[in-house]
Design goal:
By secondary structure, the protein is an alpha+beta fold. It has 4 domains: 59 residues; 84 residues, Phosphorylase Kinase, domain 1 (2-Layer Sandwich), CATH 3.30.200; 196 residues, Transferase(Phosphotransferase) domain 1 (Transferase(Phosphotransferase), domain 1), CATH 1.10.510; 168 residues, no CATH class. It is built from 19 helices and 10 strands. The N terminus is likely disordered.
């Protein structure tokens, strides 16, 4: 019955998602004036005709002589002339994000080039969107720094909220990085300049909270400029734009305290972490943590340790790697105290002077390695602990040396197998298959140890529930189900061989049932987390 309800819920969820996709497609067809696509949607989804007609009505209520629609406006208008928007002539679209779209424009009264940013959802913007948009203009409007994009004015024209800012004639840092990683001296100089600008923000009680390559613009001379203050937190004003526990920022560049929703822990050191993430990507060509799913990225930011930059690019100087890793510390107190301190250390590196970032201790290196490769660390830790217990027992009253060698050889083989599988799992293309193979080998070895152990063996059965629970840490339901089935088959095999006490017989059945229930519970929890992740991804979580 539970499976029937779950299948029903899954079918309902899938139907709702298809309905939303259909309505989104129809709305896009309205906004792009694609009559053919609109007609096709009506033909394909007659059951949604009333909702689609409602969308038509809402769109017709928008002012026809208002600003160009942010989702359909094109550079080359029908008559070839720039689109007029109040005192601005919109020349071309130069960027867009989750909430806003930016145009290159000419301010007619002063005859100068500016960038005009508007709310992407136009007149249908929610009150929260408008509040955040106005807060961005307010946060940046009072700032005057040579490396921060300045705001000239903010206002509303025929229902469309906008603000005009400096036009930087050049690509974003993200666009520039498409050509490949940056030379290490240029990367250090770029982040040093950006860090000075960010320190100016902090001096004005503002934490950016969304520093990333696409929010750093470069002019013709490769001078960087910080922009996009949509998520900036103004401490002096008691910012209330995000509720407690909300996750704000871009997963690949946000600090662990942001990723875990601990908003009260966000501070200038959170921006220092983001600067370290950008420096890491400039040096290595990839962000410290970036996966196909935002959930995997958030989990990595919170729990994992980034791969050492010099393993990805051996040309990186050692002290620059130390600077980068200090920015990426999980504990904010271990990072640079301010963005200015980061800039100072980068300047020391550029001058060839000793940097303040010190090499970590051996203990800290071990902790970082364990966070970097938790699966391997847990395997080796468990194997070493079990081997040590067996060795102590043998030294105390050992009598069967060949048997002891056999067991210790199994432990050694398990450790070597774990190291080999870890190397394959590191490759994203092999992750799924190798993870399943690794789980299968774990179950096989646990079963082998159980079979070869001296009776009574019942206490060793805890190995099967442990493997099932551990498989859930990877947030892949398929892996959990595979591990559960493998454990059940192995347990049945042991029962068949008589390695498990079967008197009374119902005990074995109860244990098998508990394994199945545990696998179902862990798999269900993983599916719930995945569903929440897809929900927030669909809602364009920043």
């Amino acid at each position: 019955m539970t499976d029937e309800f779950r299948d029903s819920d899954n079918d309902s969820s899938a139907a709702d998602e298809r309905l939303l996709d259909s309505l989104d497609g129809y709305l896009e067809a309205i906004q792009t004036n694609d009559d053919q696509s609109r007609t096709q949607h009506l033909i394909d989804h007659p059951d949604l005709r009333e909702l689609m007609e409602c969308l038509d009505t809402l769109e017709s209520l928008a002012p026809s002589n208002g600003p160009p629609n942010a989702t359909s406006w094109q550079t080359d208008s029908n008559d070839g002339r720039p689109e007029s928007f109040g005192k601005f002539e919109l020349l071309e679209e130069i960027g867009r994000g989750g909430m806003g779209v930016v145009y290159k424009a000419r301010q007619t009264d002063l005859d100068r080039a500016v960038a005009v940013k508007m709310i992407l959802s136009s007149c249908l913007a929610s009150a929260d969107d408008v509040h955040r948009f106005e807060a961005e203009a307010k946060a940046a409007g009072s700032l005057q720094h040579p490396n921060i994009v300045g705001i000239h004015e903010a206002g509303e024209f025929r229902g469309q909220h906008y603000f005009a800012m400096d036009f930087i004639d050049g690509p974003s840092l993200a666009d520039a990085m498409e050509q490949g990683r940056m030379e290490h001296a240029a990367a250090a100089n770029c982040i040093s300049t950006v860090a000075r600008a960010v320190d100016y923000l902090h001096a004005n009680n503002i934490v950016h909270r969304d520093l990333k390559p696409s929010n750093i613009l470069l002019d013709g001379g490769q001078t960087p400029y910080v922009t996009d203050f949509g998520l900036a937190k103004v401490f002096a004003a008691g910012d209330d734009r995000t509720q407690s526990g909300a996750i704000v920022g871009t997963p690949a560049y946000m600090s662990p305290e942001q990723a875990s929703g601990r908003l009260h822990d966000i501070s200038p050191r959170s921006d220092v972490y983001s600067l370290g993430s950008i420096l890491y990507e400039l040096l290595t060509g990839r962000a410290p943590f970036r996966h196909a799913n935002p959930l995997d990225t958030l989990v990595s930011v919170i729990e994992r340790e980034a791969e050492l930059p010099r393993t990805l690019n051996p040309q990186i100087p050692g002290d620059l790697e130390l600077i980068c890793l200090r920015c990426l510390e999980k504990d904010p107190q271990k990072r640079y105290a301010s963005a200015a301190d980061l800039a100072d250390d980068l300047d020391r590196h550029l001058k060839g002077e000793p940097v303040e970032a010190d090499p970590v201790s051996f203990r800290e290196r071990v902790k970082r390695w364990a966070r970097r490769e938790p699966a391997l660390a847990s395997h080796l830790g468990g194997v070493c602990l079990a081997a040590a217990i067996v060795q102590v027992k043998y030294m105390y009253n050992g009598t069967d040396f060949p048997y002891h060698v056999e067991i210790m050889s199994l432990f050694a083989g398990w450790a070597v197998m774990s190291i080999v599988f870890q190397q394959f799992v590191k490759r994203e293309s092999h992750f799924g298959l190798m993870r399943l193979a690794w789980a299968a080998c774990d179950v096989l070895l646990v079963t082998t140890f159980f079979y070869r152990a001296f009776p009574p063996r019942s206490l060793l059965l805890i190995g099967y529930p442990l493997l099932i629970a551990a498989s859930g840490l990877f947030f892949h339901a398929t892996l959990v189900r595979f591990t559960t089935v493998a454990c059940l088959i192995s347990f049945a095999f042991l029962v068949f061989l008589g390695a498990v006490e079967t008197e009374p017989p119902q005990y074995a059945m109860i244990f098998a049932g508990c394994l199945a229930v545990l696998g179902y519970v862990v798999s269900y929890q993983v599916q719930r987390v995945r569903a929440l992740s897809r929900y927030y991804e669909h809602r364009n979580l920043p």
